[in-house]
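quick one before i forget lol
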Amino acid sequence: SVDCSFSRGVCDWKQDADDDFDWNPADRDRGDGYYMAVPAFVGHKKDMGRLKLLLTDLKPKSSYCLIFSYRLAGERVGKLRVFLANKKTAPVWEQNKGKDERWRTGKIEIFQGAETTNSVTFESERGKGKTGEIGVDNVVLNSGLCPED
């Protein structure tokens, strides 16, 4: 299993150079470490910020479960999408607007074929709102299928 919370810095996170803005570290409310966030006011409507997690040593023909915490806080804050490297065209997960400010859990099954997935990209799209933020934290990759809720 790979544990990629941002406080420990174990994983290979890269900012995309071809996007419109960067994700930045933000302090957690309880003060224990930090998460990555995009404030609602950066950039212009429809601008994108991408944060890529480089994955190494994933075995072909295996399944993995990517579990992460996310938050879409604020009115009309935008969208959060997740892309896998070998399926660039369509997001494998997408969320727009949160019901509240709470952190939620996202889960994505990653099936490795002959080609292995070598990265996961978290993409934030700027919405119309001026307040709030999109946040991601506690990204964990476990081998095997995702657990049922």
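fyi The first strand starts at residue 2 and ends at 4.
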